[in-house]
Amino acid sequence: MSLVIKVGLASCGLAAGAGEVYDAILKHIKKNKIDAEVKKTACIGMCFVEPLVEIYKEEKKSITYGDVTPENVGDIIDAFSKGKPVEENVIISNILKGSENKTFKKQKRIVLRNCGIIDPVSINDYLEKDGYSALEKSMKNMSREEIIDEIKNSGLRGRGGAGFPTGLKWQFAYNAQNEKKYIVCNADEGDPGAFMDRSVLEGDPHSVIEGMIIGAYAIGADEGYIYCRAEYPLAIKHLEIAIEQATEKGYLGNKIFGTDFNFELHIKKGAGAFVCGEETALMASIEGKRGMPAIRPPFPAQSGLWGKPTNINNVETFANIAWIILNGAKEYAKYGTEKSKGTKVFALAGKIKNSGLIEVPMGMSLRDVIYDVGGGMKTERPFKGVQLGGPSGGCLPVELLDTIVDYDSINKTGAIMGSGGMVVMDTSSCMVDIAKFFLNFTQNESCGKCTFCRVGTKRMLEILTRISEGKGKMEDLDTLEELSENIKKGSLCGLGQTAPNPVLTTLKYFRKEYIAHIKDKTCPAGVCTALIKYEIIEDKCIGCTVCAMKCPVNCISGERKQVHYIDQNACIKCGACYDACKFDAIKKG
Amino acid sequence: MITIKINGKEIKTEKGKKILDVANDIGIQIPTLCHDKELSPYGSCWVCAVKVKDRKGFVTACGTEAIEGMEIETDSEEVHKARKMALELLLSDHYADCEAPCKVACPDHVDIQSYVSLIANRQYREAVKVIKETLPMPLSIGRVCPAFCEAECRRSIVEEPVAIRQLKRYVADFDILSKTPYVPKKAPNNGKNIAIVGAGPSGLTCGYYLSNQGYNVTVFESAPKAGGWLRYGIPEYRLPKKILDKEIKLMCKNGMNIKYKTQLGKDITLSKLNIKYDAVYLAIGAQNAVPMRVKGNNLEGCFLGVDFLRDLMLGKKIKLEKKVAVIGGGNTAIDCARTAVRLGVNVTLVYRRTRQEMPAEAYEVDAAEEEGIKFHFLTNPVENLGKKGKLKAIKMEKMKLGEPDDSGRRRPEPTGEFFKEEYGTVIAAISQKPEVAFVTKKANQIKGKELPLTRWDTVVANEETQFTGLGKIFAGGDFRRGPATAIEAIADGRKAAEAINRFLNNQPIIDPIKLFDSKKEKKLKDVDPKEFEQYEEIPRFKMPELEPKVRTSNFREVELGFEEEDARAEADRCLECGCNVNKTCDLRKYATEYKIDAGLFIGDKNKHPIDDSHPFIRRDANKCINCGRCVRICAEVQGPGVLGYIFRGFTTYVAPEFGGSLSKTNCEICGKCIEVCPVGALLPKNTNTKLNPHLSEKTTQNCGLCGTGCNIEVSVQDNHITIIEPADGETFNQRDLCFDGKFGWQIFEDEDRITIPYQRENDHWLPVDKMDTAAEMIRKKLENAKTKMIYISPTSSIEETLLIQHVAKKIGSQVSSLSIYESFVDKLKDTNLYTKTYDDLEKAECIVLVGKMSKVHKTIARRLQRNGAKLILITQETSDYNDFADELFNDDPIVKTLEKILQYNIELVKEEMDDIDDIGQNIDPLKVDIPEKTVFMYNRDLISEESIWNIWAISSLVCNFEEGSGIIPTSKFNNFRGFQKLGINAGEPDNYNFVLFYGELPCEEQKKRIKNSSFIVSVNTHIDDADSSHLFLPKASYLELKSTSIADDGRISNFKNPKNSTIHNKLLKIFKKAGLLTAQEAKISFWNKKAEAFLAKETKVRNLSNQDLLDFLYTVEKMHFDAHKQASVQKKRITKLKKMAK
Quick check: A490 and B57 CB within 8 A? Predict the structure, then answer.
């Protein structure tokens, strides 16, 4: 048996230099005439140690190396062959003691079942992992109603954010009377910092396609669209290849499995408008119009694309389908809580040690996700808050760390599950600044239709900016709340309805910080430039002149070996001196 | 039916209705800005937010269907607050001025923008009318006003403010020199009596408005003449008293009575006035000079400013020494100084601050300097030094400027440095205050209460109503304000008049409605100059003045006034800042209703330059509220879809592609976007006149530019048509007009419009100055003519045609038309098949438009298609509208498509009808599913007769000609159907001794065959190059003559002469003089009666079956294959006008 070497070549890996590593591996093998098969795979989720290389002879006895470089790749391969792995690079191993990764131990990978394992552009790899057998099972052994019931019974809820029961959504589309129906996959992932959908599409495109075909068959659609943002070229490429392969194998096209069921699947590239993730805007965009949400009802299940009944689910939802059909609703429903079944994929980001993609069963506490799966804080600074659900979500404080991950529990806090973005913050984050950041995002991405969202978020942003500049008034907090209230109630789509959440949750859990900005004119986290002041602590300054040399505006004066002084009027608060001082002689506050 | 609850009340309503409509049905008004009845719900403005029980958040009333059991709250506090906030947010980004800043700045809120635009349009009398709505003394104010308006004029950002005051003076002078200066119509006497004390500008203004409204007004004046400060304070060289006399005389035309030499407290008492009169207005002014508090102020040679000016005016002799000092920096000080100069002395003006802080107008200070007056700035007199009780010198202290005081001007501070100068006379013009000695006297108390006064001796009264709260006493002007300007006094007088009128009509004294006012910025200095970069610099016209040398020797008026062309050009400089739709704007209406606080959300505003690049549509994106009605109506109903959204988030705005000009798009200029805009972001323009926000007279009539005869509303200001819009209400054309109807009519107002007769001399046209000459020419030519012919255009009304038929009979001529042609289809005109109307269209299941159709027909068809009808287009046109068609045929020529469709239908019925023939051997049948309830429409002047034959043939096979089934033929001519009924037939062009073209313009071929006629008279609106006539007479258009015609669908079109034009009268007079009409026949009313009788005549209708129709069609032999050519000067010009947009 020859050696198998797998390289993670998803966008995250490529960005970290996996392409060069891959080339170096090929070169090394050729040069040293090593009997090895080099395979490509996608993201296994451990983005913080990319590039990743997995090596094994037998699949069950593998070692995954992280932070691999073209330079050390030779050593790693050679060492593995000699049975002595390069230990500092080992990330996970099921042969070396002490290397069973906690990150994986607590995860349950359903959606990500093939990610990082198979070659995404090989349909055979997918077929080896029981690919398309769920489709075959559902078409050959199940009635349409049975499929829908199975999904209903599994308790699967839409993973796009709102968590609407998927089976019920299918039922509505199934019930709609029309000769023509559509099924749409929403792959317009747009939350800053979220990349769950991209990883699935890059790493296991067939799982999404199979889910869609099963859905189409169940509701009676003969045409489907995958609406994917154009910024995901690799995902689109893999999808194109997968569609071609599936068509060749007869899973797409006419008379699938010899039945009367025909299904045609298109990819529609989105131009990157966040609002196009909203289903009515997404449909408008597919139809070639400006992506603007419309009044609902009518819901897409009654009148969707070109006025025809349409089912829309997101990538993660579809990726669950085949697994549920194969393993059964009961098996799926074993995971999760009473009302939120199954698993959820999260993109961990921010000040967390193991940033990357994880999939955990619902019901796990945020604490466990962050500290066990995520490895805890990356810096020495303490945990301050976690932002869930991207621009539509909210910031939760340390007191709420025991909140469990399920739709209803998270909604109760004022945040939302969203599509799975999870940004961990330590005390160096200013909550006013965080609120401003997310509001700025939604403000820029508002389609401009609804008054409250278009103008209201702008006025909120202006108020937040004033607060962060020390020009806020206490009444501003009431105005923010009033505006938030009406924006939530008076917007057509989810973007507007949730845009104030980051502000409302920070106001709720971190109000003191707002008050500090307004009343004391200080930014406790030292982020808001207008409110920070850099000063030299006389006792600590030894007059090394480093700060003066680093200052881009020459506002630090002082003789060598004398205490230095910062001219506050000229200081631009860039923090260069603070970072440069080796004696902690510069105070920020 | 379903049952729902609105505000706790249970109601039953039809299923499928939206909450907005259900609420409306039961009288609950829900505001909305983005909803449009022709469009599907959109839900962007959220002004219609309502709460539905168990629904998260609010829902849009416009877009939410009422369903069984729904519980709706439409006016809870929560809902009200949300709507208010939505409006506040919209307005926080509404970078616009409801009212022009000049009007806002004017204490009397004169509608400056409107009257300035009217001056630019040469509508001087209308301008005076506008001014006199709020300011009855433009002759005086046009001379003396400090012009608060000009200080806020946005034109200053470009270069200098518009010369508003001088323009006002120009029209006031124009009016007073006219035969009948403007006096408003007096309302019937209402028997109520008003006493006014003081005949100054405030008292006179109050009396003027109340007397106009039918009150008996008596003004009591202590002086021998009226005018108050204008007479006794303003020197002659600024306001000649002859002018003032004329103005006051004119103001008294409606019965205001002035009693002179009657003083309050002496000759009359307040308590008696309060008993005897229904209301009293005190405008006694502030005429007591405030003395200088310096030692020696009672020396001989010391005068007080106001007393000095008044005494001079009263003719008292005042002796001035050679060197005169005037103390003060206000207008009175300048008036004293300039007056003294004219009395031949040396004058020095002493002021304790610098020139910059002087309250006097800069131009007055300049004029004083030109006249040789010296200035001592930063100088304060501290003592008058005298000898033997006579002033000899003044001791003065040098001052310096310190910190600004309450008025914002820097405070003068003493330096301790003194100097002395010799003066024989000093005139102190510091300040004035009212004379209030009468107040405390018992006879002037009312029920034991005194008139309330401030510590400055001014009266306490409400500034909006001038009501003092005591008895029926109102008080204003300088008496309330202290020394102020005439325009402020006038404002008080007008407000008092309004309040008194409300008071005496049992209404609240204070006007309860305070209109919301959106402002770009509060002050001129805060306005972003960027948007003004697009305007070309045009310097302000300088008012001609007497040379300084000439001035100082006399009291002649210094300013000489504008010449007409200068005034007009100056008025043209106005940037028209105020919104032209400020009276109909929905946003303003709701903002007023919801009492919006415009200052609540202050932040960024999106700013765009106003786009005036299109000749007919002004786009002001600053006013846009992104409701998207224009975007949607253009794309979803009209077709071209030339507007869209640009950018995202707060910066989202509506504009043509890439933010460019409408002129560069496929815009068809139907103006529908203007109709749906709830604010003033899209406005109509007029190529001939400046438009303005002032009210106009509106007349509803029909359009006369084609056979459709749309219902229009014509807005007129002083015999000028400003805009034409679709008429209100449920008319067949609803809010639709085509380019011609909405903008094309402007050719009738353009500078080439002919209003007097012309005569051809060689290749030139010379005006015929006398109508008699024209009449004489016709009479003579007719005498000698053996062969005569009259050609009349089917654009002529029934009245005109009857008249022409009468004339023809009298001269022994035929009447025919060159614009129409004889068609087989005419034989069907009196049959049951030819009676289809727009009602049929409404009921049709399918509409087939064949060939080029008017925009209005297309829009109606589109509307009906959106309601469920099928739309089939058979056309060779390429237009965006084609995309709407359920079935579109535009590859083959029209006739080919029709033949194929006919062939298909023949094959369908062939077996039942054995006598039907295929129409051609090589024609492939074309399957088009046409239901029985189908209405076909075509324009007979734009498609060939062969096509028309095919349409009739198809319809004979598919239609049953019952309700909603059949054909509506249309025509280019508004009175084609009238011509059919009148029996005017197609004429043959030929040479005659005498030819009359009535509205006709022969096309080239026809012209060739007529041009050798010995004498041709043309009656038309414009002279065309193709016109071969010898004499040209002006013709009235459909906007200038009360008349009628018959539209395509048999309706009577009414034209009402909204302009009160006399053009047709003149023509009748010429005809009478030429011996063609009797005196009785030369009246329009005579022909109106004739027309009425003619239209009342019923026509016998023959009933034809489908088989009869088919049989008839198969007998037709002669058919024109090509569409027919006609020439029309109007159409040519309208086409040219439309081309301006590209």
Answer: yes
Over residues B501-520, mean pLDDT: 93
For the domain A533-588, what is the CATH code?
A: 3.30.70.20
Residues belonging to chain B with any Cβ–Cβ distance to chain A shorter than 8 Å:
41-47, 49, 56-58, 60, 63-65, 81-82, 85-86, 89-90, 92-93, 601, 603-604, 625-626, 628, 644-645, 647-652
Q: Which fold has domain A431-520?
A: de novo design (two linked rop proteins) (1.20.1440)
Residue B60 to residue A448, Cβ atoms within 8 A: no
Q: What angle do CA B21, B26, B31 make, to 5 degrees?
A: 50
**CATH number for the domain running over A123-332:** 3.40.50.11540
The DSSP result for B1088-1117, as a single string, is HHHHHHHHHSPPP-B---HHHHHHHHHH--
Buried b (16+ CB within 10 A) or exposed e, B624-653: bbbbbbbbbbbbebbbbbbbbbbebbbebb
B1044 within 8 A of B1091, measured Cβ to Cβ: yes
The answer to whether B994 touches B1013, Cβ cutoff 8 Å, is: yes
pLDDT tens by residue, B1008-1035: 999 899 999 999 999 998 888 999 999 9
- For residue A514, what are its two tokens? 């707002």
Left if phi > 0, otherwise alpha if psi is -120 to 50, otherwise beta: which for B198?
Answer: left
In Å, how far is A488's CA from the nearest CA of chain B? 7
Q: Mark yes or no for CB contact A458/B604 under 8 Å.
A: yes
Helix (H) or strand (E) holding B196: strand B193-197
The residue type at A14: L
Write out chain B residues lying below 8 Å of A455, CB-based.
89-90, 92-93, 601, 650
- According to DSSP, the β-strands at B1031-1034 and B1015-1020 are parallel
Architecture of domain A3-100: 3-Layer(aba) Sandwich (3.40)
Angle subtended by helix axes A457-468 and A431-445, to nearest 10: 150
A231: Cβ contacts below 8 Å, ≥ 6 apart = A272
Enumerate the residues of chain B whose CB falls inside 8 A of the CB of residue A391: none
Stretch A420-436: mean pLDDT, rounded? 95
Cβ neighbours of residue B420 closer than 8 Å, sequence gap 6 or more: B385, B393, B394, B395, B396
Helix (H, G, I), strand (E, B) or coil at B598: coil
How many Å apart are CA A511 and CA A524, to the nearest integer? 12
Domain ranges of chain A: 3-100, 123-332, 343-426, 431-520, 533-588
Give the ipTM of the model, two decimals please.
Answer: 0.93
Contact A458 B603 (CB under 8 A): yes
Contact B326, B340 (CB under 8 A): yes
Q: Do A483 and B93 touch (CB under 8 A)?
A: no
Q: Quote the pLDDT of residue A10.
A: 93
Tell me the nearest-neighbour CA distance from A464 into chain B, angstroms: 12
Mean residue pLDDT across chain A? 94
Bridge partners (DSSP) listed for residue B380: B397
pTM for this model (two decimals): 0.93
Is residue B426 classed as helix, strand or coil in its secondary structure? strand
Instruction: Find chain A residues with C-beta within 8 A of B43's C-beta.
Output: 294-295, 449-450, 492
Nearest CA in chain B to A490: B58
Fold for A343-426, please state it. Ubiquitin-like (UB roll) (3.10.20)
Tell me, what amino acid is at A477?
A: L
Determine contact, residues B1101/B1086, Cβ cutoff 8 Å: no
Q: What are the pLDDT digits (tens) for B61-119?
A: 999 999 999 999 999 999 999 999 999 999 999 999 999 999 999 999 999 999 999 99
- The residue length of chain A stands at 589
Please give the structure tokens belonging to residue B414: 């003493």
Give one DSSP letter per residue of B104-151, joined into a string.
HHSTT---HHHHHHHHHTT-HHHHHHHHHTT-S-HHHHHHH---HHHH
